Amino acid sequence: MGRIHICVKRTFIFVCVLIGIISTLLLAITLFGHGYFHQSEEIEEILPGIVVLYVLEAATLVLSIFGVYGARKEKKWAVVLFSVGMSLASLYLFVECVNGYQSKHEMEELTREEHLAMMPLSGANQTDLEGLYNMQTNFKCCGLVQGYQDWGTDIPISCLCSDEDSTDFKCVAPGNNTRFVIHYHKSNSSEDDDHKGLMDENMLVYEKPCLPILISVERSAISLGIGIFVALTALWDVGVVLAITILCQMRRKVDVPPVIFTSQPPQYRELCDTAECLT
C-alpha cells in the first residue's frame, strides 16, 4: 500500500509540473500575441479572449504550484484547492471546445461573406487591398473566387508567379488585355507610380483563388486549437483524478489507529493448578 501511495504521489507531482510548464508556455505565447496585435484594428474584438486566456493560464499555473506543495507536504487543503480549481477550469475549457466546434461553420461563412463583400476587387478600399496583396503573396494565389479574373483588366504584382514558384504552384498566363500593376505605399510614391504596368507576354500568375485556401487554413487552425484544448482538458482531468486519489489515501492514513510498541515485558500473573492451589 505504501508503494502505491508513493507512485501516485510522484505521478501527481509530475502532472502538476507538466501543467505548470505548459501554462507558462501558453502565457508567454498569449503575451507575445497580445503585443503583436496591440497596434492592429482587430485588438478590440480579440481583447476579451486574450484576457480570458491570461486569467485561465495564470490560474492553472498557480494551481499547479499548490498541487506540488500539497503533495510534497501532505497538505490536504492545497490538494483540495487544486482539484476544485482544475475541475472548474477543465469544465470551462470543455464548454469552449464544444462552442468552438459548433461555431466553426459559422466562422467560415462569416469569412466568406466578408471577403465576397470586397468584390469587385478593382473597387476595394486601400485597407482591403493591403490585406489581399499580403494574402496573395503568402498563399501563392490570385483573386478570391475566379482567380486572376477577379481583378478585371489590372492584375496586381502580388499575383505574379516567379520562376521558382512555377515549379511548385500552378501558374497560368493572363489574357492579352491585362497588365500587371505594381503596388507602392502612398508615402513612397506618387499616384502615377501606383498604376505602372509591366507588359510582358511571358509572365504567369497563380491559378488558384485565395478564398478557398484561406477558409481551409482557418478550418485547420480551428481544428488544431480545439485539439490542443481537448488535450489540455484531458491532462487537467488526469491531475484531478490523481488529486482525489491522494485525498482518499490521506483520509485512510488518518483513520488508521496508531500502533504503540514498548520495550518492557507485559505484566502477568502465573496461574497454578487447582490441586497445588488447595495445598
From TrEMBL:
Keywords: Membrane, Transmembrane, Transmembrane helix. InterPro entries: Tetraspanin/Peripherin, Tetraspanin_EC2_sf. This is Tetraspanin-8-like. Pfam families: Tetraspanin. The keyword Transmembrane applies. It comes from Oncorhynchus kisutch (Coho salmon). GO terms for cellular component: membrane. The gene is LOC116360624. It comes from the Eukaryota. Signal peptide: none annotated. The chain crosses the membrane at residues 12-34, 46-70, 77-95, 221-248. It is found in: Membrane. It is a multi-pass membrane protein.
